Request: fold
Amino acid sequence: MDFNDTPDQAKFREKCRIWLENNAPYKDGSAKMESFANKDILKEAKEWQKKKYDAGWAMLHWPKEYGGIGATPIERIVWANEEAKFNVPKGIFEIGLGMCGPVMMTYATEEQKERYLPPMAEGKEIWCQLFSEPSAGSDVAGLRSKAIKKGDKWIVNGQKVWTSGAHFSDFGILVVRHDPELEKHKGLTFFFVDMKSPGIEVKPIKQITGGSSFNEVYFTDVEIPDSQRLGEIGDGWKVAITTLMNERLAVGDADGADVEDAFKWAKNQDSLGEPLLNNRAARESIADWYCEASGLKNTKLRTMSALSKGDTPGPEASITKIVSAAKLQDIGNFGIDSLDMAGMLRTDNEDIKRFQNAWLGAPGLRIAGGTDEILRNVIAERVLGLPQDPRADKGVAYKDIPSGKN
Reply:
């Protein structure tokens, strides 16, 4: 693993930094993301994406004809590292550009790529991912939403849930069941769909943090042209895996309060007449988080090293999410506990709100994009090479799998 930039990478990093310093709406340290709370975050995000697109920074590794500049994968990572140092709008385009875009690039027709990818890169059109269902979250292949082919179109009925950004998305990628007579992984087909199609109803879910970024999405006799199918009929799981592998790189890291915030807080927070940092248990916790943060940094460097050699990051990217989400929850709990019963009172103190948001939001992050349990299985089986868990549904038609109804 190489920890250092090559001369060309160092030159590219400097080019990124200079452009960001001259164009980012907020410089590092001058404003927190909460600064966007009183504005139209969607408008801010689209303006920032358009500015990047016009300057060639929106989707560096995409081909030029689709809105990119044909940059290398490692240059994409270098850009992301530098952009993360600035307080710019986040959370609007990550799913579309990080997951939907790569799937369209792989499976869409040339005409569809030319139509949909440039507006996606520019920020004109926002995409979401329609995978999880009430009975199929971690086990996505257990989904029940069904598609019936009629002529040159499909009729879709069912429900999706926890769909991030569906309430402001223009399009979405969708996996549904076309044949319950087949095994659950084989009876799936993949589409992209216009979110304004008749029969689609989006209901935001109120979260404990106060926001509503997730949604329930209902499909009632929604017509989808067969031309919007991605992959062959029955290739739904294969196409979905392409999406999920990209998901680890796109949204793998839990963002929020980190070890630096905990350390700064402990130095100044009173605990029985002395700084909290003097407490041995507090110091041990901060030391543990520092070790975890260092491990995550080196894990990302391993990914960067693989990209620089032309390799494709594999399932080890799951490590980032499983560690960072649990660390975020622990740090949030640390900050709130230090305030005793006052820890959950509403406040204008940005430091306290950062801990509160971490504590309230982290449990959801340990579920979204793959639960801790599923990711541990991925790491055990596909990284460490341990035997797979026994599967009662293997070789069984989906309709014959035992469930709560039978």
